[in-house]
């Protein structure tokens, strides 16, 4: 297969994906990457053997970010040959685009030019954080748009054994998963950690927390109660999973962020190469309903919100 050319588009405070994702495709210049404003990125990149760092079959050839000077620095750090003045300038130049921002309320307008031009799009998590935009994304996909969005936690290798089977645990009664930062931007990391294990069938959400301390109880049709917590300063609890059943229990912790990112990006490249989605878009729709239900419950003083209240059409 020929090389797939991609563009990285957008950069918001608190999200260094343009640096790290581009490096996974292109490699990087260590001395420039060391000046990246996210010190954790050069640290986990340098742990990877050079022969295992890069994802093969695709390359980042173009970049645009909200501030031009940032795009120029990312391009130097991650060996991107073309910096463009407008995101639309990449249309006709690339085979797909990566929207590397994590503010869900912005994603419809960031994606619109490319979806309307027929360019395949990968959107960083969360796809959206509100019902009206979810309806728009769902319409686009029903109309044939090549659109994919996920958290890297869907690909967390430490959780893979439980995606394969939870038979030894008996019937699940209670599960928990935690993250730091806000529910709006990071709640999806926790949700998509556990969703591939339990599968579809979430019924309702009840958020007993507040803007800084979200504690959300979900009811699952088969697997009982699931508590998902997202707290601004809970840095010591990112990617902590616990599963409790009638015969046993299990826990796991994210250890290898690089692996999760690379597997996530490989899934999008595979989608472009084969035309086959790595997972149904209906799963993304249900996950967005869960995220939105958590927000709605919090804003309505902890009301139990049924996921069926949140429309996709």
Automatic annotation (TrEMBL):
Domain Gfo/Idh/MocA-like oxidoreductase N-terminal: 56-136
InterPro entries, sorted: Gfo/Idh/MocA-like_OxRdtase_N (IPR000683), NAD(P)-bd_dom_sf (IPR036291)
Name of the protein described by the UniProt record: Oxidoreductase
GO molecular function: nucleotide binding
SUPFAM superfamilies: NAD(P)-binding Rossmann-fold domains
Species, as recorded: Paenibacillus cremeus
Pfam families reported in the protein's UniProt record: GFO_IDH_MocA
